[in-house]
Amino acid sequence: MTKPNISILLTPLEHDGYIRRSGHPEDGRKTVISITAEGRELLQRYLPGNREEIAERMKPVRT
């Protein structure tokens, strides 16, 4: 995945307050991506349902 593609994915998440970007403390070429409290809450709310849906859809593949 290229840097522009990652930016396209991350910019809306940052705008909505789900992640935070900051400079790397030792390497100015890097960016540190952190999940915010709002982002963590969103994951906790939707991730369990997504896991169940994926497991259900994978049943035909596993048998």
Automatic annotation (TrEMBL):
PROSITE patterns: HTH_MARR_1, HTH_MARR_2. Keywords: DNA-binding, Transcription, Transcription regulation. Residues 1-63 form the HTH marR-type domain. The keyword Transcription applies. Pfam families: HTH_34. InterPro entries: HTH_MarR-typ, Tscrpt_reg_MarR-type_CS, WH-like_DNA-bd_sf, WH_DNA-bd_dom, WH_DNA-bd_sf. This is MarR family winged helix-turn-helix transcriptional regulator. It comes from Paenibacillus oleatilyticus.
